[in-house]
Specification:
Elements: H1 8-17, H2 22-36, E1 43-45, H3 48-56, E2 67-71, H4 98-105, E3 109-114, H5 148-155, E4 161-166, H6 172-178, E5 181-184, E6 205-210, H7 213-224, E7 237-240, H8 244-247, H9 251-268, E8 271-274, H10 280-294, H11 301-304, H12 313-322, H13 327-347, E9 353-357, E10 370-373, E11 376-379, H14 380-394, E12 398-405, E13 411-418, H15 423-436, H16 447-450
Parallel strand pairs: 2-3, 2-4, 7-8, 7-9
Antiparallel strand pairs: 1-3, 4-6, 5-6, 5-12, 9-13, 10-11, 12-13
């Protein structure tokens, strides 16, 4: 097996043991990006000399010499973030962001910047100033968003891990579409320094996208600045919520997730409980209102009325609409947030995790991002946010885990959510689920990642 095909932790271990030369791994990674990325548009910029400088100065940290990708949401000392857009309301600059420093201090080597959905305002990845990113499982399909490039580059094994950001499902949705494990941390637990909304956001977090839970644990430990200890999730109490998030999903997704929940129960010797969680639809609206007002930081009527012409028509309209949201709506959203936090606090006294599909259907086509659900045809963004918003609204951690494939060979995923600060438990549960299915899903790869172009 080529070194660049090893897991994140195995790359780190092989370099530490002297079995892999990190300079050769860097060169091989850059070559693979050149070969595979044109079909994906997952990475929008590489900087070989900067990467080599990082490697030359890399300390003996837990990711010494390991190549990673970082989302276009984070500035680097040599590159300002562009946020997948032609214009931001706030000035940006090349600087040391928190994720950059965490990676640097861990010895990692940033090899590229990952594409992202324009302004972070979408869960599909089909709109970007760089052009859409593509799903390695089917390049005519959406890779998810807004962390589209980090997910696609990891699924295609351009790198073994990437750093994304999750403000309304932006790590979990692309993880689900691309067959990865993606962790949305407890709010404020992972580094956010240097984010252009750092001072105002109450929903967004940085987080890892990797092939499996163990790699996510390693990369999350770096972003958290603390080692996330492993457990076994024995006796796991799993809460199932019978609401639209688990009922209004396509049959293949529902069947795969129900089977995964049963496997997780059996593997951990736990139990499954049906639990009530009313007002999820209202919580979704509250989450959307809050993140949309936070994203207006730095906006003025003059700037909104003179948006860069390369901003997509959809996001031009949404941006102008957000200026019309009345303040009373945000006040009501905050009241609902407090109510949902209280409900979750009570719920997590009865169960350890709650489970429902990460997304209600497999990745839709790039040119028509809609999904067919029992309730009818919905825009993928509308359907995905319904499943994702609660964790961002309340600040709880959540993880997306691959649990199967559709008849078209597209990944299906289960989402687990836990109480505040129990990120480790989610990783333990994800590893238990991997054991239960003999790692079938986390070790599967799209064909694009199985064969080198020169060997095809």
């Amino acid at each position: 097996m080529r070194a660049q095909d090893l897991s994140l932790r195995d790359q780190a271990a092989a370099i530490a043991a002297g079995d892999v030369d990190p300079n050769e791994l860097l060169d091989a990674t850059l070559t693979r990006i050149e070969e595979r990325n044109p079909a994906l548009n997952a990475i929008v910029e590489t900087f070989p000399e900067r990467s080599r400088e990082m490697l030359a100065a890399a300390p003996d940290g837990p990711l010494h010499g390991v190549p990673v990708v970082i989302k276009d949401e984070w500035p680097l000392p040599w590159r300002a973030q562009r946020f997948g857009a032609a214009e931001l309301f706030l000035a940006t600059a090349a600087e040391e962001s928190g994720p950059y420093r965490a990676l640097r201090d861990a010895g990692a080597v940033i090899v590229g910047v990952g594409n992202m959905h324009e302004l972070g305002m979408g869960t599909t990845g089909n709109i970007s100033v760089y052009g859409p990113a593509r799903n390695p499982w089917d390049t005519d399909r959406c890779p998810g968003g807004s962390s589209s490039g980090p997910a696609a580059s990891t699924a295609a094994r351009l790198v073994a891990g990437a750093v994304g950001a999750d403000g309304l499902g932006s790590i979990r949705v692309p993880a689900a579409y691309c067959g990865l494990t993606g962790l949305k941390p407890t709010f404020a637990r992972s580094t956010m320094e240097g984010h252009h909304l750092e001072a105002v956001t109450t929903v967004a977090v940085s987080g890892p996208l990797c092939a499996d839970a163990a790699d996510c644990r390693l990369l999350a430990s770096v972003l958290f600045g603390e080692k996330l200890a492993a457990g076994d999730a024995a006796g796991l109490r799993i809460g199932v919520v019978r609401e639209s998030v688990s009922e209004d999903v396509d049959p293949e997704t529902r069947e795969a997730c129900e089977a995964a929940i049963d496997s997780l129960r059996a593997e951990t010797g736990g139990a499954v409980h049906e639990v009530p969680l009313p007002d999820i639809e209202a919580a979704t609206i509250a989450g959307v209102l809050i993140i949309n007002t936070e994203n207006l930081h730095g906006a003025t009527p003059e700037r909104v009325n003179n948006l860069h012409p390369d901003i997509s028509p959809l996001n031009r309209g949404i941006t102008k609409y957000r200026m019309l949201v009345p303040a009373v709506a945000l006040v009501q959203a905050e009241r609902l947030r407090a109510m949902m936090r209280r409900r979750l606090a009570a719920l997590f006294e009865q169960v350890d995790v709650i489970a429902w599909p990460t997304v209600p259907a497999p990745a839709p086509p790039l040119d028509s991002p809609v999904v067919d659900l029992p309730s009818g045809m919905l825009a993928a963004d509308q359907a995905n946010v319904r499943s994702a918003a609660l964790a961002n609204l309340t600040g709880t951690p959540a993880i997306s885990v691959p649990v199967g494939y559709s008849a078209d060979g597209l990944p299906l995923a289960l989402q687990l959510q836990a109480a505040w600060g129990r990120d480790e438990l989610l990783l333990d549960a994800a590893e238990a689920l991997e054991r239960a299915n003999e790692r079938r899903w986390v070790e599967s790869r799209p064909r694009l990642a199985e064969v080198e172009p020169t060997e095809a």
